[in-house]
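quick one
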Amino acid sequence: MNLTLEGKTALVTGAGKGIGRQIALTLAEYGADIILNYRSLKADIEETQDEIQRLGRKVLLCSCDVTDLKAVKQMTEQGIQEFGRFDILVNNAGITKDNLLMRMSEEEFDAVLDTNLKGTFYCIQAVSKQMLKQRSGRIINLSSVSGILGNAGQANYCASKAGVIGLTKSAAREFASRGITVNAVAPGFIDTDMTAKLSDKIQKDILERIPMGQFGSTKDIAWTVAFLASDMARYITGQVISVDGGMAM
Ligand code: NDP
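structure w/ NDP:
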């Protein structure tokens, strides 16, 4: 069996850059039509849109902040109007606001939880309504190695990504009998703007903690997501797949 997503429609959140952009492109390469969600970054998202169109796939641009429930509902309605169905949801939108726990403000804590955890909950709730009608679907949530191991200076981020794991397993249990699988991918350190923000010293320290001795690429994550979204992964649900060069083993 070859990996194909022909005839499927995928919504990818935070698809303007980094991992989300690569996931959208890879799902399109395997044949899916794509709904590209973004918050800002108009030029980058239009470039992604062009690339997907060049692959011969349909693409819909949806500007929406995933922390806004009303906007998330509108985005899913727009998706249904355009494509009639949702086969794949990738909850990728995420932020960091790092600080030591003793210095972390309530705003820093809430902003990260709102985007990474509540945003994922909103999107699952809105999209699964349609998937339940179809009695089929694939939901893939971006967690993180930090949600598994914890990380000094990232109490908000680690709590949100650990929360994503609990959310994934609960949703997987609720939807298992309805043909919908729900899994999480837990990236290690991947070359994107999010990790570029880390100081040279922190990057060097992290490299020493990665058994494979290198950061991952956005493609490493996108290929795993494509597999989980495909029929090849039909019997996998409620799992957390680490893609981290061995960090969390
Ligand atoms: P980037 O910072 O490069 O990109 C994040 C994307 O999410 C941006 O396009 C951003 O849009 C979007 N986004 C943020 N907040 C919202 C929101 N409220 N609504 C809609 N979109 C939003 O991150 P990465 O590509 O590195 O990370 C992608 C995912 O992978 C995240 O969930 C992250 O936590 C996770 N991850 C990343 C790791 C890494 O090493 N890079 C490691 C482990 C997990 P905008 O720019 O407009 O705000």
